[in-house]
Amino acid sequence: MNIYSYGLNIKEYYDNIYKKRNEYNIKEIYTFDNITDYIKNYRHIYQYNESQIKNKSEVLEIEDKNSLGKSYICKNDICTKIDRQYMKLFIEIPDRNNNIKRYIRKSYNYDELKLYKIPNFEIDYVYNCTKEEYENQDFDSCEYYALISFKCTYDSQCLTNKCIDGYCIFNRENPTEFCTYIYSHSIFSSHSYIHCGKLENDICKTNKECASVKCLRSGYCSNPPDGPSDTDGLNDFIKFYFFVVFGIPIIIYIYFRCTIKPIKVNKNYNKIK
Q: Taking every pair of C-alpha atoms in the chain, what is the biggest distance, in angstroms?
């Protein structure tokens, strides 16, 4: 089942909240235009940081094995560092003339958007009370909800350069590249490398198209695999133990069974003529 199928009624739920925003104490609404004014904008936007900018060729040359959780989103071969464990709604990235551009990063597959009711905003809890307000239990002005909208109006607002019905849509003609570490592990060895490709839930036909190197049978890119686990060593020992105890004897049995021909006994050998 696709993740979107869990959200059949989510949009109706959020729409109801939006209509009753005063009742739900939603005091602030932030959009593409004013998201940086939000006191907790760091939750929702990858803000421009010159030290985190690289071109794609530089990204592919990174060999820092301690950065498995870190990834890059690239547009026109200009990449900015992100944390793939927490994908934010907006992103700032320079263009080829070094002008800082803000985009809506959150994108959807149009086919699924037609099937499922998906909200194009999130609700954020805000607690910004002073000591005096807390002591007086005066929470009305400092404890509230903020609505964060990632609704698009123009193609240029989307990282994918495609806006349909208020949603940023994955765009085959202008694909956004996601470069991330892929961790490969087996009993005898493990290694990691960076692969660039399509984001999760983008349409795919082959594994190589996806940043995760995994195209699901449903035709969508999956999440990147997890990095090293604390239990890798124990799991490897268990696998190796079962291989030695059961696997090797079976292999030896099959080998001799297939290569050594049985000895034929001459039934007339011991007969007295």
A: 119
Is residue 38 a contact partner of residue 44, using CB atoms and an 8 Å limit? Answer: yes
Kindly report, residue by residue over 75-101, the tens digit of the pLDDT.
Answer: 988 999 998 778 899 999 998 898 999
Q: How far apart are CA 171 and CA 159, in angstroms?
A: 9
For residue 243, the tally of other CB atoms under 10 A from its CB is 13
Q: Is the Cβ–Cβ distance between 69 and 83 less than 8 Å?
A: yes
Give the tokens for residue 244: 């030695």
Strand partners, 78: 55, 75
Q: What is the spatial distance between Cα 248 and Cα 246, in angstroms, rounded to a whole number?
A: 6
185 near 170, Cβ under 8 Å? no
Helix (H, G, I), strand (E, B) or coil at 161: coil
Contact criterion met (CB below 8 Å) for 121 and 151: yes
